User: Fold this.
Amino acid sequence: MKTQLHFLIPVFAALLCLPAFSQIEPGSGVLHCAAKGGCRHGLIFKNSERKLYGYDVKYLRFNLNIDPAQEIIGGSVLTRFEVSGDLSQGLEMELSTAFTIDSVVFNGSRINFNHSGDYKLVANLPNPQLPGAVAELEVFYHGIPPEGEGFGSVGRALHSDVWAMWTLSEPYGCRDWWPGKNDLTDKADSIDIFVRSPEIYRTASNGLLISEDLADGYRTCHWKHKFPIVPYLIAVAVTNYEVYSEMSYSAGTPVEIINYVYPENKAAIMQQTAQTAMIMELFSDLFTPYPFIGEKYGHAQFGWGGGMEHQTMSFMGRFDFEIIAHELAHQWFGNAVTLNSWQDIWLNEGFATYLAGMSYQHFFDGYWWPRWKTLSIGFVTSEPGGKVFVDDTTSVSRIFSPRLSYYKGALLLHMLRWKMGDDAFFAACRNYLNDSRLNYGFAGTSDLKYHLEAVHGKDLTGFFEDWYYGEGFPSYHVKCNQLTSNDYRVNITQSQSHPSVSYFEMPVAVKFKGADRDTTIVFEHILNDQSWIIYPGFKIDSVFIDPDQWLVSANNTYELINKSGDVDIYPNPSTTQMRLIMSAEPESIKIFDLSGREMPVDFIYEGSGVTLEVGLLRQGYYFIRYVVEGRTGVVKFIKN
Ligand SMILES: [Zn+2]
Assistant:
């Protein structure tokens, strides 16, 4: 899903424009969630805290009547399931009480049911239902969908005097339009969707369009999807669509891209959707082939401001480059491999956001990719705290926090790529997608971490503690002090914006620039106040911290001290001891205060300089007068 937040909109055919940088929080509503994830300790999910349904969904068949002008949804949903637990107290589903349930049919016979508040529908199955048995339950219902929580669940809007009606279930909205098991543990192996609506309307949905039948002034569209699918990714959109098709290739295999758009917008949208093919080829090359080869990918225009990655058919409120890339990316990250808890929403949104960023890198580098990084880092560091891990899954606005789940999640991946290198990072992502335990199933952060560590060969626990569970970011201070004409001492310190992290251990790149040359050095910054001696081979006149923007950091500063004359002095100010770097052993060294009084001083010449003991001096300004190689000089210092 992508909300109204967007940074950049490059338009196809090099017509580039720059919209205002907006920050709009999506869905501010707070709701109670039936699919609320359990508590976490470290990266271990307590599965025992999940709701126990006692059945495993195999197949769903939707037979719906939808008339956008009337706002009514009615019909039936059939669930074929395998018994996996105790159903003696009934089989539980969720459906809003805004709907009237007409009947519940179990294996062809009507049975009793209870439909109460809290979306609870309990069908009283004949006993006993033995584990392993496969059965069918069909719920017949009708009604006007409730207003809906989260992002609306069911939306409706006029365009050019024609009604459009659509569903958007993520995260908990399935129950606002169909009766079913709405959680993150169970994917239906396949689905059929039949939608009957007045003839002027067409329905866009998951999978392949099998048929469109016209009869008695109505059109029935039959969509079939044969891949495992989680409930929140099932969707329908109904309006007077025009349809056009494009072709892409994924790892050499053709994939049809089918677009359902409002007739009045078709010409403009065609300009934009033409970009989809190249992005699909990029993702297929970087990661794995499109997960739903054999069916299609598609876009269906709808009236919500953002986009939603319904499986094989993203619903689009607009068609800019970034949102096309973002929703397509979800087909790998979110749809083929689905988060197993809303606490891990970054596995969906962080990846989709980052893949959109990488699409800029590959197709619009030079301006858009650096700009994406600048704006993303600026957005994430616009507040001092906030973690990627979602503590409170009852808050839809927290789950879908653009700053934390989308952009900090994306930059977390960006930093892992920096830390591991491209080859290892992309190999680990491919292993994650190809893992047979996860592919077309569910994954948590610990699964991704496992694959990253397996390729990287190093423990990433500290990284996840700092960047995933921890809050905030570092501010770096780089001090670059010339020792002789050839070498510099580089010292890096950091402060943290939030007390939850004591220190961010990261490789830090620093670019040193001279009059006609530059060099970039990566420092493994694992301790505060760490120092290195470097030999750039030229006089440095400027310093750039993290020049290629790999790190989430802000308010970075540097201090460059080039030698002037015979000596260099550090630290200055000083508390106990200081060094004077000199080209030779001094003939004399004297210290004076501001009134000209000489102070007692002890010094030792060793290495390339003199160590002065100044601990006994009072605080204030002093001058050092020295004679070296026959020349006299004076430097000022501060005693703290
Ligand atoms: Zn998204």
About this structure: The chain has three domains: 9-349, 473-563, 567-640.
